[in-house]
Amino acid sequence: MFVFRIKGLARLICNRCIGFGDAKYRVYTSRNATSPIIPRPLPKLNHPAMIKNYLKTAWRNMRGNKVYSALNIVGLATGMAVALLIGLWVFNQLSYDRFLPHYQQAYAVKVNYADPQEGTRTQNYLPLPLAGVLRTTIPGIKYVAETDFADFSGHDFIVGDKKMLVDGGTVAPDFLHIFQYPLVKGNVNSVLNDPFSIVLDESTAKALFGDADPINKTIRVDNQYTVKVTGVMKDFPANSSFQFHFFMPFSYAEQTAGYVKAARTQWDNSSFEIFVALQPGATQAQVTDRIKNLIAQNNPNVRAYKPQVFLYPFKDWHLYADFKNGKAAGGFITYVRMFGIIGALVLLIAGINFVNLSTARSQKRAREVGVRKAIGSRRYQLIFQFLTESVLITFAGFVLAIVLVILALPRFNTLTGSGVQIPYGNPVFWCIMLAYVLGIGLLAGCRPAFYLSAFNPVKVLKGSIQIGKAAATPRKILVVLQFSCSVAFIISTVIIYRQIQYAKDRPTGYSADRLVSTFMTKDLYDNYPALKNDLLASGMVQGVTSASSPLTKIGWHTGISSWPGKSPGELKINVGAVIVNETYFNTVGMHLIAGRNFTANLNAEATNIIVNEAAVKRMGLKQPINQLITFDGINGQSRIIGVVQDAVMGSPFTPVEPTVFNRLNNFSSQVIYRLAPGVGPHTAVEKIGKLFNKYNPAYPFSYVFVNESYAEKFSLEALVGKLAGIFAGLAIFVSCLGLFGLAAYMAEQRSKEVAIRKILGASATKVWVLLSADFIVLVTISCVIASPIALYFLSDWLQKYQYRISIGPGVFVLSAVITIGITLLTISFQAVKTALANPVKSLRSE
Fold it and tell me: Which of 727, 83, 75, 724 is closest to 343 using CA atoms?
């Protein structure tokens, strides 16, 4: 009877726990103990039933341990959501422009100029005659398209009573052969042949013409010329390097802008961008070798700078836009790689949580493993069981991660300015996700599976195995690794934030407060004196001026060929040039530190210039006032009449470039005005808009606050800082989930020890310190490990900025304090709960 009861118990345990024993024979005996044992073979295993039983058992274990399962699922879901979100974003960035047919054959033409003082300078803008040479004489080039870079700006379109300010530009007809943006209406071979034709994107065509067919409809451009719609192209996707709403033929610019027509023969006028497509079989290296000396051969004035023309692939524009000493030196790819690593590390942290929590719970499941092995389960079956549980938890985490990504995508796309979407209808995506879930589940569950399945059943059932101590060391190592990543994220976030604030706090050299800029159209240019008087008389502004460039960008660069003290053989100085009038410096708040300002007499000031401090320093002038120099923007010699304080008109992360201000003519592209103090911006803009509409009726009134325009210079760094902060917070959150689970486990394991200590007189504070000390030590070690690693990578990142912070010890101390503080908050709940528990309840079972 006893034998049959054991047999029945074994069968029951086997069927309920793992489904089947795996011994080759099952032992049967008769009721007579002296009867011989009759071995019988087991029936063939039913594998589908086994798998079903594994899933049922895994589900029961998850339901029976709700807290640990929830911690694992939420931690994995957060890590997977971050990794998936970053993965989709990285794919989006890597796919830039790849949607265009034959994108591999498209190139931008660039030129390198060698300068002993400034190093090799890479320039996008080229002389227009170069396009003709490339088109007619260079083998291997199939298409050539020149563009007017100055024309890629807002233009006013009038259709009936509709007025729109639209971004676009003029391009040669071959542009749409090089960059094959799909047309929904029109023929690519003819849409840009007529100088007064235009190709619109779908959204602009709909805004102007509604649902009517726009082909052959006319548009009044800038209230000067009428053009006919000959084509409609699809809207540019978010992952396109070009983001325009219309194209007009380059011949339009030649017929309507005299300087463009004149530039056809001017090798010393580098104001245009040129793009080419190569013939099939032609290589970038072959064509570059044929074109590299074209500018030097045709323009003797620049031979001293050794200009080298080269091709730069279209596929690299987005990610590798930075050049250093004439070579591509990275760019946005740095951030793509950075966030790819961050996504992988957050996922690693979530995986560490899973491993730690699973191994920490191993003691509770040790007897289960011992019983299963005692009744015949083999190790591989136990491994399969635990891996099934791991994959099931991972799948639950993946489902939650998809939900989190769906909820986060709108805000994420707004923040990053991207168009990331989950490709629901793409089977390849779901195959990758299936492999993703299985891979994470198996990797995260392999250590608990192999660890638990290795228990000795005899020792487990006798209670002689000390599972917690056996797993303590690897668990501590994983906690240190986990928090090292989190601390590194915190340090990175602090450094990025400090770098951005350092540049934002940099003195700009002008006052951007209440300063507004409006693009100057031809009508505004013709009526500028009257507009200025009306603006000042309105009481809404306290100063008005005009300039050839916005305050936050220098649109014209030229050179200083000679100056007092120039060394023989020294090359000209590249400088920014801004055409201003006599009210410019007072209106924008720039301060003259020497000499005088311009007067209103244009003829008297035609050869006078004002330079900034950087130009004086570059020329080495000790007494710059009244010195004569040769400024290439003015025929003959120019006299320095004033020196103005340096102003940050370019990048806030680089030194101020040498700049020359002149009154060469009245040319202006910007009306700049400062709102009067005490006047509300909304009220002022509303009244000012009416004055602009009075003199500029064909254009909708548009304006830009200078401080907002300046803030846009920090957009990339600000984006990186925000994303780094968000991901650092998520990494800490995931780490704390695991820490909370481990703290709960440790408190449970040491509950009897704590009860004895309290009976012997230990205070709650001492118990709290006892339970917290181990975790604080581990987190402190993480801080020590993370600090030099973060220092190495962040120092390298800061090298890209010439105007940058220095990294001191304070950031590492601050990050350590933040991390330890978060750790104490996380574990204190369980520590205090255990310290305040009634010791009698903990010891009652003894």
Answer: 83
